[in-house]
Amino acid sequence: MPTSQTRTRARNALNRPEFMSLHHQPARSGGAEARAGARRPSYKTQQSQQQHAERGGEGAQQDAGENGRERREFPEEDCMQLNPSFKGIAMNSLLAIDICMSKRLGVCAHPTSSWGGMRSMVKLLALTGHGIPWIFGTILCLTRSNTLAGQEVLVNLLLALLLDVMTVAGMQKLVKRKGPWEMSPGFLDYLAMDMYSFPAAHASRAVMVSKFLLAHLVLAVPLRILLVLWAFLVGMSRVVLGRHHLSDVGCGFALGFLHYSLVEMVWLPSSTCQTLISIGTLNWFF
What we know:
286 residues; mainly alpha; 12 helices
């Protein structure tokens, strides 16, 4: 009897609520929650992941800002045009043809060029179209002239030469185009401010002088033909020497005609020329 009572008391004690979890299996939901809890990252892990994400976002924003600044810093002329206009294609093609032909025609650009042996003769021909010899030669002829008509022509020619030198120098300083071959200007080029390629100063001066002499001097037909041929050869000599492009010479020819037309429009009469000569003479002596 005592043994049976003891067993009955033990069973009753085990049936109490606080001892039920010892001989009952856990529910499935509890196992799922345990597995979910095992998979769920800890607080420190979540915090580190958030910090990495914030740093990555800030880095991406900085990279995007730097790329935007770089895109804004690029000038428009350095950007590639994916759909260029017909005008732009035509201008670029003409410019490429001009550069290619000018380099091929520069056969006396260097002593080692194909026509390097004729370089001195071509340079002498180009010197006949330089501004400094023409200005000093005109002043010398003006001091020797005794007629009013001759002095009138020479004074207007001197003004035309000065106009040509100043206009070409200003345009060259504005455009600053270099020649087809890298060459440093000479001493006379610095004096005449002929340091860039566009427009060709020799071509402009040769056309202006030849047109002026043809209009105001009585010359035979062979001399008139030689004068026109001289103007053309002076302009082309600069291309052969590698100093100018073909387009520079062409624009120089057109500019020479323009200078002649301007001088004819503002032609100074004989009285005005005599006044200028007297002022120049007084300045020379005093």
